[in-house]
């Protein structure tokens, strides 16, 4: 095996603190009925603990040089498949075992893909029971913030539509090698059996949320008008009329709208595209 130099481009900060590692597994409530997806196993420090507690572990690692390390770490447990792939490009379903029990994601993920990864995991159609992820502390706080509160962002709306978020644990930079510049926190998302409410066009609802938060200091109407894709579909008048129909002030900002406001807006706007 080659010796190990952590690669910045892959967001490699390895966790070596045994106490922190087992507390992460504790927070995921792993039992022998659980099949775990681990993203970015690195050298396999967390993989070992997951493998010792779960029925199976699927560990997906982008860095080919690390595959031998994870393979050796998980070897004794005989229940881990190590896959060399980019989780953002992979068809996740095809990587998982055929008959899964309760599926959980547990991982110290690369921070540079947090938002797209969480979005992918929440929208890929796989019935995960929970996602337990170590992420940058500010991002954990934002994801767990209730929509409409001061710390919230577009991702908070998505998270609360699909899951119950909880911050479980704070982890100091010194627990990692190399020591990162940021603080970390473990977030647990218990996935709802069904989304909070039905919406006719989920994609449109999240486009409205994202565009609204992209320019959160502007009014929602102006933020939508500044988003080229949405502005091509909906005129300012149509957006204002939809707000009026819902008895919402036309000068409101996105951050004052609730998740169900966005759902109602998406339902009203679907089918009202410019001709
Ligand atoms: N879980 C390990 C390593 C965390 S560092 C530990 O706690 O020690 C993040 C890991 O994610 C690295 O091993 C990195 O190579 C891997 N990684 C980065 N981008 C990835 C991607 N797109 N798909 C899969 N793994 C990725």
Describe the structure.
- The chain folds into two domains: 184 residues, Vaccinia Virus protein VP39 (Rossmann fold, 3-Layer(aba) Sandwich), CATH 3.40.50; 68 residues, Helicase, Ruva Protein, domain 3, CATH 1.10.8.
- By secondary structure, it is an alpha/beta fold.
- The termini are far apart.
- The mean pLDDT is 95.
- α1 packs across α2.
- Strands 4-3-2-5-6-9-7 form a seven-stranded mixed sheet, sandwiched between helices. Strands 1-8 form a two-stranded antiparallel sheet.
- It has twelve helices and nine strands.
- The structure holds S-adenosyl-L-homocysteine (SAH).
- The site of S-adenosyl-L-homocysteine has 23 residues, from β1, α2 and β3.
Mean pLDDT: 95
Helix segment tally: 12
CATH level 3 topology of the largest domain: Rossmann fold
Largest sheet: 7 strands, mixed
CATH architecture of the largest domain: 3-Layer(aba) Sandwich
* Helix-and-strand structural type: alpha/beta
Low-confidence runs: none
Q: In what range is the share of β-strand residues? A: 15-25%
Question: Could you say which overall geometry the principal axes of the C-alpha atoms support?
Answer: elongated
What would CATH call the class of the largest domain?
Alpha Beta
Describe the strand arrangement of the main beta sheet, using strand numbers.
4-3-2-5-6-9-7
The multimeric state of the shown protein is: single chain
